[in-house]
Amino acid sequence: MPDTAPTELAKAILAHHAATFAGLNAEPVPAPTSSEPAYLAALQAASALGFIAHDAECIARAWQARTVRTGAVSPETWPDAPEDFGLQALPRAHAFTACPKDLGLYAVLPDAAWVGRMARAGVPTVQLRFKSDDPAAIDREVNAAVQAVQDTGALLFINDHWRAAINAGAYGIHLGQEDLDALSAGDLQTLRNSGLRLGVSTHGYAEMVRADAVGPSYIAMGAVFPTTLKKMATAPQGVGRLQGYARLLRSYPQVGIGGIGAEQFPEVLATGVGSIAVVRALVNAPDPEAAAAALMQAMQGS
After folding, report:
1. pLDDT in tens, 253-287
2. How many of the other CB atoms lie within 10 Å of CB of 31?
3. I want to staple 198 with a disulfide (CB 3.0 to 4.6 A). Which of 23, 175, 186, 216 is the partner?
4. Structural domain spans, the chain
5. pLDDT at 302 (0 to 100)
6. What kind of fold does domain 104-299 have according to CATH?
7. Handedness of CA 234, 239, 245, 246 (dihedral sign)
8. Largest Cα–Cα distance in the chain?
9. DSSP label at 30?
10. What's the CA gap between 157 and 84, in Å, rounded?
11. Which H helix or E strand runs over 11?
12. Per the omega criterion (within 30 degrees of 0), is the bond before 288 cis?
C-alpha cells in the first residue's frame, strides 16, 4: 500500500463521519504507536474530528483491530464492536452486582433532604453528592439518605464515599475516574464483595475502556452539553459522540449526564441511553416535584 494511503483513508473516514462528530476543534495528532495504514488513518481522522489524544489512540487501535478481524478498513462504518476495543467478553470475568438496564430519571442531589424529597416524588434513581471533609458529617448524611429512600422504591447511589455507603447499606456508589484509579486492588475487592452496585463516570473512549475493566453496574457518559457545575477535562461530547458510546457500551446500563434539560431529552434518548441524569433541572426549579413529574414524562417520550 503506498505511503499516501493513510492520508487518503483519513479523508475517507472524515467524509463519512464529519457530520456526526462536528462541533469540536481539531486536536494535534498524537505520536503513533503503530505503522499500520488503518491505524494511522484512524488516528489522523479522529484527531481531526476533535478527539483528544488518548481517545484518538483508542479509536485508532479499535479501527486496526476491526480491520484485522474483518479484512476490511470500512471507512464508512465507525467502530463499535466491544471486542475491537478490548472490552470484557460476556459474561464478564470481573463484574459488580447488576442494576436495572434502564435507570430512568436519575437525580443528582446535594444532601439527604433533597434525596428524600425527590424519592418521595417518584424519581426512580437518586444520587447523594454530598461534599464535605468531615468524616462524621459524611456518615450522618449517608445514613440519613439511606433512611430517606426507605419505602419509596428509589435506588440510592452515593457519590464517592464508598466506605460510608457500605456501612449504611446503600444500594450503590458512583465513582469518578480519579476515585476509581485511587482504589487499591484490596479496596476494589472489598467494594465488589459488599454487593453494592457501582456506577462510573466516563468522558470518552479511553475512560470507557478503563471502566469496563472493573465491570461496573452502569456507565455514565458526558458531559453531553456544556455545564457549569464542575470543571470538565474534556469539551462537551454532544449527541453524535454519545450515540457512538451507547453503541459500544450496549451491554451496559447507560446514563447520559451533563447540561441536559427537558428540551434535550428526546435527542439524548434517541442515542439509546436508558437514563438521563439531572441536577439543576430539579434543584433550581421553582417547583421541584412538578419538574420531576415533567421530566419523568419526558423519559417516557410523552
Report:
1. 999 999 999 999 999 999 999 999 999 999 999 99
2. 8
3. 216
4. 5-79, 104-299
5. 47
6. TIM Barrel (3.20.20)
7. positive
8. 67
9. P
10. 31
11. helix 5-17
12. no
Query: Following CA atoms 163, 164, 166, 167 in sequence, which dihedral angle do they give, to the nearest 10 degrees?
Result: 120
**Phi, psi at 12, each rounded to 5°:** -65, -40
With beta carbons less than 8 A apart as the criterion, state whether 169 and 144 touch. no
- Residue indicated by cell numbers 428540551: 263
pLDDT score for 22: 76
Nearest Cα residue to 249 out of 225, 271, 234, 276: 271
pTM over 0.85: yes
- Helical residues (DSSP H) of 33-176, grouped into ranges: 37-48, 53-70, 112-120, 135-148, 162-168
Q: Which strand (E) or helix (H) includes residue 278?
A: strand 275-278
Bond before 164 cis per omega within 30 degrees: no
Helix (H, G, I), strand (E, B) or coil at 52: coil
User: What would the pLDDT profile of 149-163 be if each residue is shown by its tens digit?
Assistant: 999 999 999 999 999
The three three-digit cell numbers of residue 296, written as one number: 419523568
Report pLDDT digits (tens) over 185-235.
Answer: 999 999 999 999 999 999 999 999 999 999 999 999 999 998 766 555 567
Length of the chain: 302
